[in-house]
Amino acid sequence: MAIEESWPQQVQHLIAQRRLDPAAAIENADRVMQRDFIYDHPYDMEPTNVVYHMDPITWQQTPNGDPEWLYMLKRQEYLLDLLLASQAQDDPKYLADAKTLIIAWIDANLTLPETWRTIDTGIRLMNWAPVVEALMQAEMLTAADQVKIQDAVTQQMAYLRAHFTDHYLLSNWGVLIVTGPLVYGVLHPGSLTAEDMQWAMQELETMCDLQITDDGVHWEQSALYFLEVWRDLLAVQIAFDRYRRPVPELVTRKLLAMDDFAAQYVLPNHQLLQVGDSDAVQIDSLIQTANMCLHRTTPLTPHMAPTLDYLLVSIGHLSHFHLTDFNYYPIHKVVDSPASGNYFGRSSWESDADYWHVINGNIGSGHGHANLGHFDLVLGGQSVVVDPGRYTYVDSPERRALKDAAAHNTVLLNGENYDPPTDSWSFQSLAEPQAGMVFHGPGLSVVTSIYRVAPAGGTPGTITRQFIWLTEEHTWIALDSAVAAGENQMTIPLNFAPELTVTAQGAGHWQAGSTTIISHAAGGTVSDELYSPKYNQLSKLQRLTLTQDFTDQGFNDLVIAPTGIWQDVSLLTSRQAGNTSAQVVDPRYCYGVRLTTPRGDKLYVVWQKENTTVGDLLYFVDDIPVFGNLTVIRQDHTGQISRQIVRL
What we know:
Strand content: 25-35%
Pfam families: Hepar_II_III_C (PF07940), Hepar_II_III_N (PF16889)
CATH class of the domain at 336-564: Mainly Beta
CATH architecture of the domain at 336-564: Distorted Sandwich
Domain Heparin-sulfate lyase N-terminal: 28-289
Largest sheet: 10 strands, antiparallel
Radius of gyration: 27 Å
Domain Heparinase II/III-like C-terminal: 360-547
Subcellular location: Periplasm
Distance between the termini: 73 Å
Protein name: Heparinase II/III family protein
Oligomer: single chain
Structural class: alpha+beta
Number of helices: 14
């Protein structure tokens, strides 16, 4: 009769299979045992890059002036590193220290609930759940220890219920508050009352209904906080599945929607897209664990590291994954989320893929940034234009600069921030997304973003952006229009990936690595600006700012493509049918660009923004008749024409 393996033995097998890599956990566990603290896990909400020594631990004093450091200390995620180090090396000293730290928190904090926060309490219970279970299984808790921990859990649960307000129903905090108790309560039967468990699940169900769209987007418009909510929902699902307890259908349905959507936030290098308050972190382990739990493979599976999320694995005691038993689940390369104003496209799931993202939705919570009409672009696996990140939550010039519209690849009027912050979390006024339209046809995708700006004391106006992605040509085109009364200026910042240097190649022509940028804007300047790949990390990137003066209504063009694809990019001259004179056509009736390849093939993108009310509705560009709000015309070097009417 076979002897069933213990969970620590199963963990060792996962390590042997390279499903878990304990190296970083062991390194951090050794630091923690010396009371040296750094928070650098991929899913840390406020990571750090400096080690601070704290022995004895002063639980109420931050060593660096940032209260977020103290919040991270009290969440006790480092307990998981101690647990994995103990299992990986079959060494009980790490687990013994985890017990010491749990008891230390209780002794120093339990009588000081005024120093607690609800979010940290929920996260701490999540982290305690598998660690206390391991301590119980290893018989390392005395009867007195068990009573002390149970009393601490009871008091923390009472604190959460007493301090849970309506505000949390629309916050990632709310989800993190209730999922910790739910997981702890399932892994430790009887530790929470049935009433407590029912309350937590009812609140979670309400929050899932309010916060997550049916297509899986979290309302706060931050990829990182999408990740946190998704991970905690996974933890609940996995814990309940382990003990064969039902999860409300709504919660499971929203979780599955987030699973489907999560892949869109993954860049070709497998880092998280920086949208809103987000960091450029690798998320292979979370993607892979979610798919493993769902018993499916996707086009991403073979391209990502096979590593698993240790927290989720520990909660569910997940150890046997046979890919041959899984179902193949296709995920789309082009995804539209009109509910949130997010649009995504990529050429493949390979690391050298092209990728683009457009956002034109409500700002969400304080984690949102001023990014209406913003786009991200990756060409051949190389990030080209990016969101510069978040850096800090401390109200400061850096915090405000990184939330500013100029830190995003958008359009401003007269350089004015259309969502000016008043502090780290609040805004003086907000621009309004007006509309988003999409078209997907052979060889191209089009996203139209329209938004209204009216900053307090600033210039009111309406911005329309026509984004055209040419699949085969790896080319991104933006045709922009601004409508505002009087003399004004369109300001178009383009924030380039930090590894790229932007150099001028002539009037309206710049080079960034192997990428060419062309615009007929009147002005273009390059400046060094802030870039933050992770919280508490700050460096520089280069920003190209285009400017175009106009009266009442203005237009501008932008083309970004691999160098060598296009020999020439020109603004179109056009004539109205029935008018053979040299009269200049107002760009609002016919505006666009002509792109010419070295072989002589031509591509026309023609935007007829306003309907013609006087004269013929037909226009000609290079003697080619055009009609329709947006039209793409290809003319090969032999003169053969093919036409795509994107929008009438």
